[in-house]
Fold these 4 entries.
Entry 1:
Amino acid sequence: MNYISTRGAGIGERHTFSDILLGGLAKDGGLYLPNEYPKVSADELARWRTLPYADLAFEILRKFSDDIPDEDLRELTRRTYTAQVYCNVRDEENAAQITPLKTLGVEGGAPLSLLELSNGPTLAFKDMAMQLLGNLFEYTLAKHGQTLNILGATSGDTGSAAEYAMRGKKGIRVFMLSPHKKMSAFQTAQMYSLQDPNIFNIAVEGVFDDCQDIVKAVSNDHAFKARQKIGTVNSINWARVVAQVVYYFKGYFAATKSNDERVSFTVPSGNFGNVCAGHIARMMGLPVEKLVVATNENDVLDEFFRTGIYRVRKSSETYHTSSPSMDISKASNFERFVFDLLGRDPARVLQLFRDVEEKGGFDLQASGDFARVQEFGFVSGRSSHDDRVDTIRDVFEQYDTMIDTHTADGVKVAREHLQAGIPMIVLETAQPIKFGETIREALEREPERPAAFSGIEDLPQRFVVLANDAERVKAFVAERTR
Ligand SMILES: *Cc1c(COP(=O)(O)O)cnc(C)c1O
């Protein structure tokens, strides 16, 4: 398996899975993709139906990472996908499944279900990929005798998933910037209560955008970046995307009895990482009818899938919503899909994403390319705060199930795309406790709290407060990476 950039660099060069694992963008600013998607045969699909999650992950990942010996990869996936790691299940009987499928009921002539992806250590779906990444990074760094210092900015979900995945890992340190006193008490406690010596929580005196600007400034200092071995774990990381392919297969097997059936997935989307994995599963041959992209008020993606116009927003046009992990101004993984949509033409992708930088977007309606979106099964919808509150209340009353705000956006939009005879699977991306304020508004009660998290706000916290100043952050990192 060879990897190429969506903008054309590296065609004719050799880039293995391990080569691109620790990096971010390709050198031409594009995103890495396999030179072709591996296909799953009918025999394989039949054999995979009954595999435990870890072994299914092994079978899928090995198609993308043929430079890692099978026995090593099997050990890594078995260590990652255990009932001990994904232990925050709401129904004990399901613990072994890692991603249990919960059927709510029949709507529109087919079952409507939730695929639980948030039973990991930080109660959001990002654990599904990040936990594997932690083990893959440690394995690859050890092999080459290298170390890595991960620098990131977070307003909640990504940062805590990265910290819980990298804690205690050899050869890795995490420097995570978060806005001082701007996260919920629960999210703050989740991150700052970690006492591992390789995890550094940096509370920046500013807002989330300031944290992101500092990360950008540090990354743009190429000499510093190289000297201090700075890397990132953002959502464009290829291994994260490919790890997410696995649960589309798992969800499909759980919702069907035979491989002649088709299902649809609805995916609460921000940076297009999660639903990009669904696209790849479909390209590999998983019988997927529709991929439904659900956005919140930040509807860059819904606008594209309705009109063919991709128009990134300015930060002043980006809303702070009650499903904050989907508050994006542009969708950083979207370029991977555009590459496929345009028949894998890197010159055109380069031109379009130049237009994004120079003119703020592009229009595929006029060129006729947009018509092909249908062939890929994509449709979309958007949700508002009122929709989210109504959906949380409705699902609770009708099905006795508490869902978080992002999943509520998914259920709201899924209901607009139901088809008789096609099961609809909504990806559950977080547990309600993470977004308690909206749960209280919708249900006038406290969100459910998994046992492991009782009293977490009272634990001692380990963090430093730094001024909103990239130089100060660089000095802090440099002192600790000597
Ligand atoms: C990150 C996140 C999303 C968005 O996922 P993308 O891969 O960025 O599309 C949705 N819901 C929750 C809870 C998240 O943490």
Entry 2:
Amino acid sequence: MNHRFIPLSVPNLKGNERNYVNEAIDMEWVSTGGAFIDRFENAVKAYVRSEGAVACQSGTAGLHLSMLLCGVGSDDAVIVPTLTFIAAVNPVRYVGAEPIFMDCDESLCMDPEKLKEYCETCCKFLDGKLIDASGRHIKAVLVVHVFGNLADLEMICDIAEQYHLKVIEDATEALGSYYLSGRFAGKFAGTIGNVGVYSFNGNKIVTSGGGGMIVSQDMELLNHAKHLSTQAKSDDVYYSHDMVGYNYRMTNLQAAVGLAQLEQIEDFIDRKKQNYCCYLEHEINLIPFRKEIRPNYWFYAYLSNNRDKLIQHCTEQNIQVRPVWQLIHTTTPYLNSTNFKIERALYYYDRIVCLPCSSNLCVDDIARVVQIVKEQERLSL
Ligand SMILES: *Cc1c(COP(=O)(O)O)cnc(C)c1O
């Protein structure tokens, strides 16, 4: 067996990345200041049509800042999905709050019906505050747009408004996805809630090596985000600080890579769409994206009744595949947290196998993955 290794999701760095990094080095601006940071922020802002954008060190850092920006503090609670990457949830604990875990719907994103039921039947709404069974003030709902799909934000935003919850969009996997119809037609993932966060980690649709971006329609909130991310430094000469801040600002080198990547995002999405359709043409039934959106086709989720055997077989054949994340309410740090009627997420957890989805995947690679998957699925019948 000497087949080429087919990775799950790797970056595609054939644009201006090298030129821009060289430019940053030639200018000798490599750290947390420099022209590429502004250019990258402006490019993201223009692409997703937000009021502004603040670049930071990672998606996780952006989510941590979002908790602070939404006033989430110790003894508060935040409603979160269980089917997601743990980086979405840990920031709730960073600020001393508790997560409350929700199930997913068929889009793999938070189930709005169960969210509503939870708020109606397990909480009290007192003096304009939603209070959970242990007396915590639920301040926000954190929505994750899983795999580039979009959550049902129409319904979730209505529930949030009714119960005075802030909406934090973890759009780390969904840069480029937008609604085609409905109340939010034309709006991009990340730009609808109070605050949205993107990630530019190496496996995301565009990468800056590592990095994140906070977007919002509220400039005051964004200015505060920038302040917090730069050690809450109020002036550059005397270094006065009015609060505890963080070293969360993106570097110029990261922004140079990120800007070059963003220039190519629509090409990446086109390729990912073609590859997604190619799997479907070969009768590999990937979980569909919602009809009413333009997804970014970031990750491809295949449902198998023999998840572990399929993973083993692909691995032996030099094809990298992966199950979905361990459900967060079952991970050690969150075993004692509240969860509400989690059913569908268990079903998906048992069956999802993520298939190779890099934008530089070629037709032959897909044919090989298809052949190996079908081989194993026939054996398991
Ligand atoms: C990647 C990811 C993050 C974290 O982003 P980093 O930039 O790696 O810190 C958060 N949430 C979800 C759902 C992600 O997929």
Entry 3:
Amino acid sequence: MAIEFIPPAKPIIGQEERDAVDRVLRSGMIAQGPEVAAFEQEFGAHFADGRETVAVNSGTSGQHLGLLAAGVGPGDEVIVPSFTFAATGNSVALTGATPVFVDIEPEYFTLDPEAVRAAITPRTKGIMPVHLYGHPFLVDQIEAIAREHGVAIYEDAAQAHGASWNGRQVGTMGDFAMFSLYPTKNMTSGEGGMVTCASETIARNVRLLRNQGMETQYANEVIGFNARMTDVHAAIGRVQLTKVDAWTAQRQRNAAALDAGLAGVAGVQTPKVHESAVHVYHQYTVRLDAGERDRIREALKQEHNVGSGVYYPIPNHRLPSLEKYAPGLDLPETERAAAEVLSLPVHPSLSDADLDRIIAAVTAVAGAGA
Ligand SMILES: *Cc1c(COP(=O)(O)O)cnc(C)c1O
């Protein structure tokens, strides 16, 4: 009998989610309504210290609308990492502002504070760090730089539901933070995003931009989008919200098992966690020798039926869509990470036997290249 494939990610949808969707569908009220309002309130209370929270139809929409709501536009610069999903830089570019790509530090794959400092100009409006893989960015140093230069922080918390820094939740550090609810993220609503806001003004602006610029029907105040979440999606998200803490704890236990099993395997560097950080392991990302990474990934799949992922193989400043913002830019740690990272399965559906299989497979495959 063939051994079962271990996928790199696996959304968990239970009977409760199906029942919640059915309840909304039967009500006949499907578009944004009371489920969305309840989900916003519950999400903000759970993940952002009660901050005013606005639901939208994707994380990318949330990031784009959050930036517009914070007044970012043509002539402004926003500092972003290049080692991230393209949505980070895209959302800045979509406002008409310029994404300024800077390098990461090598320990946690997050924005390098010294590189951020060096990239600040009189046009810098804000810094948008990413809590990459579920590990918070270097909050103390980035906040100090933002304060010193009078620039804002906008958080990309797409991958970091429940992560924290010295007891402060991610999602409470910026003028706004965006969380994604895409199926492979730590919790899902199908598609969706949440914007947690530091001020009532930003929250109101996001609400206006989400719904054609209207607060009162047909009294359109500004030019806006339709970026609304449906009650169907909110119903899924509300159920997931009751389960996500247990899933996060399981991700952390799985990561600890992988750390222990892979410690000392030559050529495999397990992920580091900063002493101030709580990591929620959206991804469990190891570093491998650049010349070995693709061989190891292929052998895990072909010989052991173990899935894995490369997040992200092409730095954003070299994407055809975004390279015009970074002509000739050299970001050595970003390039090195893009060539070395491999994310192993860490999702909460893994059994102990799965974890043993992953560890045995990586150990066998990593040793085979020498
Ligand atoms: C997923 C993700 C986004 C975008 O979220 P969507 O819900 O897919 O639009 C933005 N930034 C990062 C780092 C992400 O992982």
Entry 4:
Amino acid sequence: MAKPLQIAILGAGIFVRTQYIPRLAELSDLFLIKAIWSRSEESAKGAVEIAREIFPDVECKWGDKGLDEIIQDSSIVAVAVVLAGQTQVDMSLRLLKAGKHVLQEKPAAACSSEAESALSSYNSTLNCTLGQPIWAVAENYRFEPAFVESKRLVTEIGDMMSVQVIVEGSMNSSNPYFSSSWRRNFTGGFILDMGVHFIAGLRMLVGCEVKSASAFTSHVDLTLPPPDNISSVFQLENGCSGIFVMVVSSSSPKIIWRVVGLKGTVQVERGTRDGLHGYSVSLYTTGGQSKSLFFPFSGVNEELKTFFSDVSQAIVENGGSCKADPRCSFVEGARDVAVLEAMLESGEREGAMVQVNKF
Ligand SMILES: *[C@@H]1O[C@H](CO)[C@@H](O)[C@H](O)[C@H]1NC(C)=O
Ligand SMILES: *[C@@H]1O[C@H](CO)[C@@H](O)[C@H](O)[C@H]1NC(C)=O
Ligand SMILES: *[C@@H]1O[C@H](CO)[C@@H](O)[C@H](O)[C@H]1NC(C)=O
Ligand SMILES: CC(=O)N[C@H]1CO[C@H](CO)[C@@H](O)[C@@H]1O
């Protein structure tokens, strides 16, 4: 049996404790968590305690010294970067330059100019003798079976006439991320941090890029960082237009994507069935016919499996041109950020039309 991959996790916050460790535990036949790092010893210890139930030998690392040890440990081939949005890109680049494969949490970057300079730094690792390390951004929506199926259905409904994305979120004080200090200090607030998922879903469904956007934003719920609501009109490269509405905190949560074509309509709606959270995908065709399927969430597992399989492949090929799944690529994550950035900029300029930066 091949030796399992050894990985490290940078970050030990709520998301690592409640999401990463349990999801990684389900895939523990694919790799071993060798170390968990955090800036502070206390936080690293808290996460390590949880991880030890499945990975008994996980080491606890903290501070600059702990980080150097991870970077210099050649047995650690891949690192998950799950830190504050403001620091992730610098950290990822540091690891990539040390030859580690990186899975970074979304958002890919704080803005498109940061993404642009990050990409050119990443390009400079191209000639590295070990081959270019993989830089993946964790965007589970691109792996959700509901979106994979809906993308296929959209190709069956003829010319696209209209697209609607309506997100009425539930980010109130009951949510564990409500008090997250980095999210509150992030330009674009929760609209950017959470919005990248909904834009990823939109881009996947329509299968082309958003070209330009115009938007109004406002700050109504003063317990949230600004802006907390946005209403945008956008145009796609295929000429079709659409709307993106996002309310960060509403009392009646609803999340829906709808693509209207000449021969039918595809709708994806977040919901639950038989106690499972997931998405209902419906296809409405001419003559009033419709069919509906429910897909429970599984995108996070799919995305993690894909990353580890890409890393194994890269190691086997040992420097050969490694073909990581493009759905994980940093550039895809950067494109999601660029769309929201254009909408937010338009909001600041009272609805002026803004072109989306291209990657
Ligand atoms: C990085 O390299 C790719 C492929 O060579 C190229 O298409 C892209 O423009 C480069 N990006 C930057 C920001 O230098
Ligand atoms: C927050 O939103 C959830 C979901 O809508 C709701 O169940 C909960 O009661 C809300 N909590 C507060 C404090 O408003
Ligand atoms: C918030 O962000 C600014 C600049 O982006 C930074 O100078 C400041 O230290 C941050 N504050 C906190 C509490 O993270
Ligand atoms: C989408 C949405 O709810 N937009 C609202 C944001 O808040 C302003 C008030 O400041 C409303 O006018 C918008 O309708």
